[in-house]
Every structure is written in structure tokens, then in C-alpha cells.
Design goal:
The protein is an all-alpha fold. The chain has 2 helices and no strands.
Length: about 50
């Protein structure tokens, strides 16, 4: 098994940034229509805290 290290802070920032894209095109995220409200609550549950 190959292990890959991922910068979680960077990855989360990129996902949150793409959630802000409101028009179709580069960076726009697409979701299956079958996803419920709970999925999106969990996707956006974390908050950035700068110390």
C-alpha cells in the first residue's frame, strides 16, 4: 500500500473556496441530487480559527 501525505489545511481551504463558486465553469463543484441536507451540514461543519 502506498501512503500519500496530504496537506489537510490546504485541501480544506480549496474545498471551501470552491463552495463559493456560484457559476458553472472551472472550480465549480457538482453534487449528486440524492445527497441530503445532513451531507452538506457535515461538509461545512468545520470553522477556521486563526490563533
Amino acid at each position: 500500500m502506498t501512503l500519500f501525505f496530504v496537506g489537510t489545511d490546504t485541501s480544506k481551504a480549496q474545498v471551501y473556496g470552491r463552495l463559493q463558486v456560484t457559476e458553472f465553469g472551472p472550480g465549480c463543484m457538482h453534487f449528486h441530487r440524492g445527497l441530503d441536507e445532513e451531507y452538506f451540514k457535515q461538509l461545512t461543519a468545520e470553522k477556521v480559527v486563526t490563533r
